[in-house]
Design brief:
single chain, 3-stranded antiparallel beta sheet, two-stranded antiparallel ribbon, 5 strands, about 140 residues, alpha+beta
Amino acid sequence: MGDQLTNRKKEFLGSGWSFPVTFSIGDHKLILTRYEKNITDSIDVILQTKFGERPLVPEFGSGLQRFFFKAMDETLKGKIKNTVESALLDNEPRITILNVDVFFTDMERGLIEIKIDYEYNQTNTRHNYVYPFYIKEGTNLGR
């Protein structure tokens, strides 16, 4: 009974397709995510999508890809921070962004970590999420 009550309180967080889109083994049903996982999946989709990639919603996404191969400096940190804040403000209405920090985690491989602190609008519950972004396209592949 306690789980049902908790789940009813979380219904506002929504549900949707998993990301990446996944099907179950055997019956091949579409796997859905719910609640907090659905929001982190949504953040991933927004940050990974190029502007214009979705023809029916060309303004959807973040456009982070324009920063590929740029110099890793303080100016870039500010541009990435502003881009992430704007993209999530425009595309994810269930959360309010509290802070975005950008860290150059691995200069050689071009790994940037974007830490997003946010709260759910209906409960003011705070969460954070770290999004790995490789500025040197293709460097996240195993050797």
